[in-house]
Amino acid sequence: MSHATYELKAVARERVGKGSSRELRRNGLIPAVIYGDKQAPISISINTNEITKRIHAGGFLTTVAVIDVNGEKIRVLPKDYQLDVVRDFTMHVDFLRVSANSQVSVQVPVHFINEEKSAIKTGAVLNIVRHEVELHCPASDIPEAITVDLAGLKVGDSVHISAVKLPKGVTPVIADRDFTIATIVAPAGGMEEEAAEA
Predict the structure, then answer these.
(1) Domain map of the chain by residue range?
(2) 20 to 30 A from 167, CA-CA: which of 19, 54, 111, 141?
(3) Keywords for this entry (predicted)?
């Protein structure tokens, strides 16, 4: 479970709009907003380098942070960020306020283990249908990843969400069907030809 939190310093913004956002970016800051938890949104500015480091470190959208806005500490979960399409420069970040008992929906990466104990060892291919799964979970207990064990899987086998052991209190957002995460398939024209030759 991802319990790691970090703190960011921010300043509340009085002025909003394109002009003030451009001015912030020129000064090494980016505009951001904190919303949710039945409270009025707060427009803030944050140090660009700090946010960019956090985004590139991984797990940005699944790690709860504490933002110090002029001395008031607010627990948040980053919900979205915009990058400049040309320069890969952070343009804006949205933060969702979370409390100790908040439930959130987050995209969690899928990790695969024991490939060498499956048909992949003999040339089959892992066809990943979902690299991430959207989960509903407590904001204080967001899984860093979900793990899929491939041991014993043969060509033609599929891994569905029901086969994955999810942590307590965590459920898939898609609840109306047992969706596929990955399948084991024969390589294009590979294994059938080998079998025919044998």
Answers:
(1) 6-99, 104-197
(2) 54
(3) Ribonucleoprotein, Ribosomal protein, RNA-binding, rRNA-binding
| CA distances (Å), origin 37, targets 96, 183, 189 | 8, 39, 54
Per-residue pLDDT of 169-185, as tens digits, reads 899 999 999 999 999 99
How much is the pTM? 0.72
Dist CA 104 CA 138 (whole Å): 6
Fold entry, domain 6-99: Ribosomal Protein L25; Chain P (2.40.240)
Q: Which helix (H) or strand (E) holds 102?
A: none
Structure tokens given for 20 = 């003030």
Q: What is the CATH number of domain 104-197?
A: 2.170.120.20
Radius of gyration of the chain (CA): 22
SS3 content of the chain, % helix, strand, coil (to 5): 20, 45, 35
